[in-house]
UniProtKB/TrEMBL annotation:
Location(s), subcellular: Membrane
Identification of the protein by name: DoxX-like family protein
TM helices/strands, residue ranges: 60-88, 100-119
Organism: Pseudonocardia ammonioxydans
Topological relation to the membrane, as annotated: Multi-pass membrane protein
Keyword ATP-binding: no
Length: 122
């Protein structure tokens, strides 16, 4: 893989960390958009801290991976992929498509992180 592609994947992985840190903060703050989205897909508000913990653990795992423990970064990235696949599934199950782009975006970021860490650990 070229240096440009590796650098781009690294940048997207850092963006994945930042995006997940943002959404963790929004979940914990019970931001209006988070509560509205959760209600639309049938998620009870009491689940938000648990979901924030999962996303936060994924973000921390990515940071540890970027700091040199690439296998942990890969594991965290795979966990985030699974999380966001479930989020997309929740939108599809509830037929909430007007904002499905957000979990899809997070899924793409997580998939990019998987790609980055796969290349780093290879």
């Amino acid at each position: 893989m070229s240096d440009v592609a590796s650098t781009a994947l690294l940048i997207v992985t850092v963006v994945c960390v930042a995006a997940n840190a943002f959404i963790v903060a929004a979940d914990l703050a019970r931001a209006r958009f988070v509560l509205a989205n959760s209600a639309e897909v049938g998620l009870w508000p009491e689940a938000l801290p648990f979901l924030a913990a999962l996303k936060g653990a994924g973000a921390v795992g990515l940071v540890v991976g970027l700091a040199g423990v690439a296998p942990l970064g890969l594991t965290a990235a795979v966990g985030l992929v699974l999380f966001y696949l479930c989020a997309v599934g929740a939108h599809v199950r509830a037929s909430v498509f007007h904002n499905i782009g957000f979990p899809v975006l997070f899924l793409v970021l997580a998939l990019s992180a998987v790609t980055y860490f796969t290349l780093v650990t290879a």
